[in-house]
Amino acid sequence: MTETLALVSSGIDTYRQPVVYMQEDCHICRSEGFAAQTRIRIDLKDRWIIATLNVVGRGAWLAVDQAALSVSAWAALGAEIGDDAAFSHPEPPASASMIRAKAYGERLDQAGFAGIVSDTLNSRLSDLDLAAFVTACAGDRLNEAETVALTRAMKEAGQTLDWGQHTVLDKHCVGGLPGNRTTPIVVAIVAAAGYLFPKTSSRAITSPAGTADTMEVMAPVALDAAALRRVVEAEGGCLVWGGGLALSPADDHFIRVERPLDFDSTDQLVASVLSKKAAAGATHVLIDMPVGPTAKVRSAGAAEALGIRLSSVAKALGLNLALHISDGMAPVGRGIGPALEAMDVLAVLRRAPDAPVDLRARALDLAGHLLDLAPDAVVGQGRVRAQSFLDSGAAEAKFMAICAAQGGFREPGTAAQQIEIRAPHAGQLTAIDNRRIARIAKLAGAPRQKSAGVRLLVRIGDHMDKGQPLYELHAETPGELAYALAYAESQTGVLTLSEAVS
């Protein structure tokens, strides 16, 4: 007879990693030889999952005849109060040997990547397995054929959206440039021009805000595929979180592991971006690559290499792709963090007199380039058309209509805690370190705390007096503000001022 334990919900959010908690004196732990971090198969009625074991000390909150499940494990099993489940050792995942082979430098084919993706989605691989896979693929360890194979495996593991014979435009920025929140503006312009633009975005991986984080400040983004389709059919465009859809679903698992590692693999970036674009039904895709010494793409050579890989994989998938190389020397706009970036987006859409000039110009450049990609376009007229939709208010109206269709618009809020960082001496602002200013915003609480971040008060080229405010720290709690302030004050060169000449 199979031994069972009563299931209880721990209420612990482990995101997408199923976790089970058992007391150290549990008879099943002893008889099966389960120890902390053991992978365990849990069977309940006609469902089963594989979870990672965390062991609870004797006399703690869990009874010896109970097993507690994390939020994701409880939901995956469809467990209910009073259920009993069986526990056993799972079969070793077939893809573990593929990960090991890749770690030792072997080449994988699409079947190998498909196996890894399948085992990832079925929770057969632990976070250690996934970290090994992500690391084994980093540092240009995938060749072109492998990148195509991984991209196809990721795309085919989920559902795809079909928009018939329509031209479907899309864009993606490779990132690394704080405040570069052009996408909501570009979507509004392109949809106002009459094209389909079903934009799905990730939450931030290593940045203070992703497009989904910023958009969520203004409207719901966790839509399913049916709701996404309704919004696009009604308004031509949407801005939703891709993690709530089954479009290239393994990507969210890889991102979850990449986030604490704090790096992005170039080839996995290509697979991530293009698998999602293909799954969303895009026909024409524009890739924005900001280039600068503290951006994600640091040199013209790196941009060229990334562009070649993106173009070759896009061609293999049947996507029409164009590259847009942009200035990555400094942050864009004033806000760095979800709510602060949302305020900049709205200022541009509303044609406010104090709207960030650089954010407006970049959004128009990208929207114009994207409009020029359309098969029926008069090439070279895209930016003029884009500006007409923005200046007339048509883009603002379209954005508000998209927000309403997604569940309703709301104005961004402001942080309760704010403090100014002032110039230590007079001089001209010559540089802003993208990575360190982004780190300050993250230490202040962004993107988890939506109103947290940094608000820049100066731009490169400005002349500063000693004591003049350079930027503001925004946080929701005094502790987070103090944490970010301590780091900001310990750093030199976040903002570089030339010495004033007396």
TrEMBL record:
Its EC number is 2.4.2.4. It catalyses: thymidine + phosphate = 2-deoxy-alpha-D-ribose 1-phosphate + thymine. It holds the Pfam family PYNP_C. GO terms for cellular component: cytosol. It comes from the Bacteria. GO terms for biological process: pyrimidine nucleobase metabolic process; pyrimidine nucleoside metabolic process. This is Putative thymidine phosphorylase. NCBIfam families: ARCH_P_rylase, PRK04350.1. Belongs to the thymidine/pyrimidine-nucleoside phosphorylase family. Type 2 subfamily.
